[in-house]
From TrEMBL:
One of its GO terms (cellular component) is membrane. Residues 32-377 form the ABC-2 type transporter transmembrane domain. Pfam families: ABC2_membrane_3. GO terms for molecular function: ABC-type transporter activity. This is Sodium transport system permease protein. Coiled coil: none annotated. It comes from Microbulbifer rhizosphaerae. It is found in: Membrane. InterPro entries: ABC2_TM. The chain crosses the membrane at residues 27-50, 182-205, 236-256, 276-299, 311-330, 360-382. Keywords: Membrane, Transmembrane, Transmembrane helix. It is a multi-pass membrane protein. Its main location: membrane.
Length: 394
């Protein structure tokens, strides 16, 4: 019976696996909720970070402002609110809601006129949220004001300010919106891949270890079916749910892009409808590979709970691997990396998210490599099903 390519029971087997997969409301809701959760969280975090950095105002209390009246006016500007305070301790002022306290000594005006570089005392609470940002903002304002004063003093004495600046560093950013988007959206491909694992987790455990404990797998193996068709049917059913989760995540992410402040981050939304469809097609071979690997691991586990534990650990592995590769600064742009599952899909998704093109030839080669691994895993699973020890694992 194993030598036959297809059996008449293949179509009913597929129907049975798909019905059991899509009737499992718990697994279906898990796939839908996680698929929609991370795009919403990503959009919320992006909006929060941009709003915090662009709209928050730094409150500065200026002690001893009467010693330098012009300093208070020069420091005022966008996102920096300066208030002259006649009295009060720096600690108390910080507790009253000020982000920073700048204190001028009583001899500031005299030392300033005598070119003695009087000190300025800056008080801050480093444990407070946003204290570092407020300090950096004030330091930039003070540095620019200091350069202006130095230039004016040199000019008043007939000295060219250029003598103290032998060169001028002009920073010119040659990055494109696509390259900036690739940096900021680098985590999105990993999360989309993680969605495949999470969305198909419950179904893969139930259709393998679950059926073995319910003894329905033994009944299925007694049917005149090639073992590889049993594994293939289960793989297609599980992969369909994981693929649905990834498609929902992609659709939600693209739908939320107009709400996200991408323009403030220097990103132009370049993802088109064709790009969305391409991302979905690129994830299909990987969805099959993830499904068959999860099924095989669940089959070799000793129990249903053991299978859940193993696959829960497995779903963290791909994101960890991709993070390690990024942290190690490994050059993944080499074409041969596009033959490696997970890494190839990450690079393709990253390019499509920001509107860049991908090589059709390498995409076909990488997808074919992924499908070959799926076929090899199905063949390995078919041999495992023929072992009697498999049913005795429980």
């Amino acid at each position: 019976m194993e030598k036959r390519r297809f059996s008449p029971q293949m179509a009913p087997l597929l129907l049975k696996e798909f019905l059991e997969t899509w009737r499992d409301r718990r697994a279906l809701w898990m796939a839908i909720c996680f698929s929609l959760m991370f795009p919403v969280l990503l959009a919320g975090v992006t909006i929060f970070v941009v709003k915090k950095n662009t709209e928050e105002t730094t409150r500065l209390a200026l002690l001893g402002a009467e010693n330098a009246p012009l300093l208070e006016r020069q420091l005022r500007g966008p996102n920096l609110e300066v208030e002259a305070v006649a009295e009060g301790s720096p600690r108390q002022l910080l507790n009253d809601g000020y982000d920073l306290v700048l204190q001028l000594p009583d001899n500031f005006a005299r030392d300033y006129r005598d070119f003695r570089a009087p000190p300025l005392y800056l008080y801050m609470d480093s444990s407070a949220t946003g204290a570092g940002r407020a300090e950096h903002h004030l330091q930039e304002r003070l540095n620019s004001l200091q350069q202006l004063v130095v230039s004016q003093r040199l000019t008043a004495r007939g000295v060219a300010p250029q003598l103290l600046a032998p060169w001028q560093l002009q920073v010119r950013d040659v990055s494109t919106p696509s390259s900036r988007g690739a940096l900021i959206l680098a985590m999105v491909p990993g999360l989309l891949i993680l969605t495949l694992f999470v969305a198909s987790l419950a179904t893969s455990v139930d259709t393998s270890a679950g059926e073995r404990e319910r003894l329905s797998l033994e009944t299925l193996l007694l049917q005149p079916l090639p073992a590889w068709q049993v594994i293939a049917a289960k793989t297609l059913a599980v992969a369909s749910l994981g693929w649905l989760g990834s498609l929902l995540a992609i659709a939600a992410l693209v739908a939320l892009m107009p709400v996200m402040p991408l323009a403030e981050l220097g990103i132009q939304q370049a993802t088109t409808t064709g790009g969305v469809l391409a991302m979905g097609l690129l994830l299909l071979p990987l969805a099959l590979l993830v499904a068959v690997v999860q099924i095989l691991l669940a089959l070799r586990s000793s129990s249903f709970k053991d299978a859940q534990t193993q696959l829960s650990i497995l779903q963290i592995a791909p994101v960890t691997l991709l993070m390690v590769l990024d942290a190690a600064r490994i050059d993944l742009t080499d074409n041969y990396w596009q033959l490696v599952p997970l890494v190839a899909q990450q690079q393709w998704l990253k390019a499509l998210l920001v509107g860049e093109s991908v090589s059709v030839g390498w995409v076909l080669a990488g997808s074919l490599t992924c499908l070959l691994l799926v076929a090899a895993a199905i063949a390995f699973g078919a041999r495992a099903l023929r072992r009697e020890s498999l049913l005795g694992a429980v």
